[in-house]
Each structure stands twice: as structure tokens, then as C-alpha cells.
Specification:
The chain is of the alpha+beta class. The protein has helices at about 5-20, 70-85; strands spanning about 25-30, 35-45, 45-55, 95-100, 105-110. The protein has 2 helices and 5 strands, in the order H-E-E-E-H-E-E. It has a 5-stranded mixed beta sheet with strand order 1-2-3-4-5.
Length: about 110
């Protein structure tokens, strides 16, 4: 399988995991100039911008460690573009989450940064 197909498999699993916990999925793979947001969802009053990271084992580090400062800045930029595109006010309550998948173990980190 290519990297994109593998990523899509785990993103789909993460979406189902989040939906099972009450989030309403609004967008998948939201592309913007300079990047992509894996999942955008509503969780109560919050608009959640969610990065999904998968690792087969921890040999290359834990999946959540792959969401470094550069990736966080891209997600912030994408969130701003999403708010602007959908004409949402800047005061919209937003949250940045990470769904880390290690093997078969899923960890949802709310307010990751």
C-alpha cells in the first residue's frame, strides 16, 4: 500500500472513533495552500481541527511526537483559512486535537496545543 492509502485507512478509523464519542464530522482532508487538516469536527461548542498520526510501533517515536511546531503552525494557518472561507467569526471557540494511533491503540489528545 502507498503512504496515502495507509493514511486514509487510519484517518477513517479515527473519524469513526471520534464520531462514536459524539463529535460531528464536518470535513475530511481539508486542503489549503500549504497544507491539510485531516479532520474538522464539532464537539459541543468547539470547532475541532484534528491531526491523525499513526505509527506501527514506537521504534520511530510516538505518533503524537510527529506533530511538532512546524505542523502546529500549518494547522493554525489552515484553521484561520477555514474560518475565513466559511465566514465564521474569529471568536469561534476552536480546539486543536491529535488522534495518535500506535499499533491498534488509539489515544485522543484534546487541546494538544
Amino acid at each position: 500500500q502507498n503512504k496515502r492509502a495507509v493514511g486514509k485507512k487510519w484517518e477513517t478509523l479515527a473519524e469513526q472513533y471520534l464520531a462514536d464519542r459524539g463529535l460531528r464530522i464536518l470535513e475530511r482532508n481539508y486542503y489549503f495552500p500549504g497544507g491539510e487538516i485531516d479532520v474538522i469536527a464539532e464537539d459541543g461548542e468547539y470547532l475541532c481541527f484534528i491531526e491523525v498520526k499513526y505509527r506501527k510501533t514506537e521504534a520511530l517515536g510516538f505518533p503524537e511526537e510527529a506533530v511538532g511546531q512546524a505542523k502546529q503552525q500549518k494547522l493554525l494557518l489552515g484553521a484561520r483559512r477555514y474560518l475565513y472561507k466559511h465566514q465564521l467569526p474569529e471568536c469561534t471557540p476552536c480546539r486543536f486535537d491529535v488522534v495518535a494511533i500506535l499499533g491498534q491503540q488509539i489515544t485522543w489528545i484534546q487541546n494538544a496545543f
